[in-house]
């Protein structure tokens, strides 16, 4: 995404929308172009404050371009089996095998 030329507030809002969308779509990395000005100087602070980002790095040492690593999407966990259910399954398996 290209943020170069946007004011800082608009750029922050667009960046946050993009990282949340990447998280929801299970996209692992986001390339962000900030340019080499004030936004580039503040960008690591944005990444640190972003609940969907892990880190950012400058690919090829380009100070106006970043690759942001997006947090792994948490999936719904299946409910855990109760101790009674586990014992019942073990009992049934033992009867069938034993």
Could you give the topology of this structure?
Elements: H1 8-24, E1 29-33, H2 38-49, E2 53-57, E3 65-70, H3 83-97
Antiparallel strand pairs: 1-3, 2-3
Structure description:
The protein has 98 residues and is of the alpha+beta class. Helices cover 45% and strands 16% of the residues. The chain has three helices and three strands. The chain has a three-stranded antiparallel β-sheet with strand order 1-3-2, with helices on one face. β2 (53-57) and β3 (65-70) form a beta hairpin. The protein is globular, with a radius of gyration of 22 Å. The model is unreliable at 81-86 and 88-95 (pLDDT under 50).
Concise account of the structure shown:
It contains three helices and three strands.
Task: Supply the key terms.
98 residues, alpha+beta, three-stranded antiparallel beta sheet, 45% helix, 16% strand
